[in-house]
Here is the input.
Amino acid sequence: MPSNVLSFTKDDRALRVSEKVFVSSLTPEERKTFEQLHPPGSRSNPPSKPKREKKPALPAQTREGLEDAYSRLLSESKGSPKPRGPAK
Here is the structure.
């Protein structure tokens, strides 16, 4: 039995794209009227995704800073792990 998932997905995407193009081409007055007729969250007026905030970039580390952090990490560790014995 052939699956209609691919054609359904293509049709759904084409519908969403055409709706988005239509809504984005409206003037502010038309958009206000459209939102009154189609409340936000409805199928014809889906809510927009919130924009993600970018995290600030970390400052570039110098080799000395990295070596210092590594030596602090080694000194703060609980000692060296016990070596394993031979496999039996």
Remarks:
- The first helix runs from residue 5 to 24.
